[in-house]
Amino acid sequence: KKNHQEEMKSMSSGPSGELNVEMDAAPSQDLLKVLNDLRAKYEDLAEKNRAEADRQFQDQVKQLKVQMVNTVQDVSSSKTEISDLRRTLQGLEIELQSALAKKRGLEDSLAETEGRYCSQLAQIQQTISGYEEQLNQIRSDMENQKSSYQQLMDVKTRLEMEIET
After folding, report:
1. How far apart are CA 149 and CA 157, in angstroms?
2. What SS3 state is found at 25?
């Protein structure tokens, strides 16, 4: 900063002179026209880019709408399928409960029938045992009678032989 101030003092205290600068330049173009041309080109380019971006946006919106419609249809059909499957499941659960109740009823009926037949079988077994006892008694009586009859026949035969002799 100090050097700058010293340079400024030396220049201001030194000899003052005039300086003329001349330039040879080509005839100047109308800068306003050039700027307007550039602006028009950029505006055309911007308009083309905006139109292209708008077209791409509209295409993407159309694609998204189609996807959305398809997704909505898929969701709707899935919901319908789920509700159908739920109804089917409920129907099957009702059938299962009905079948289980029927099975329990049949098992109870089977147990009752088995109990009844077991008691009837026990009664029949008792009856058979009674008949077997009676049959054994009858056999025993028949054996006794046969034996008595045989003795009587033997006596008769002996008596007849004695009479004949």
Report:
1. 12
2. coil
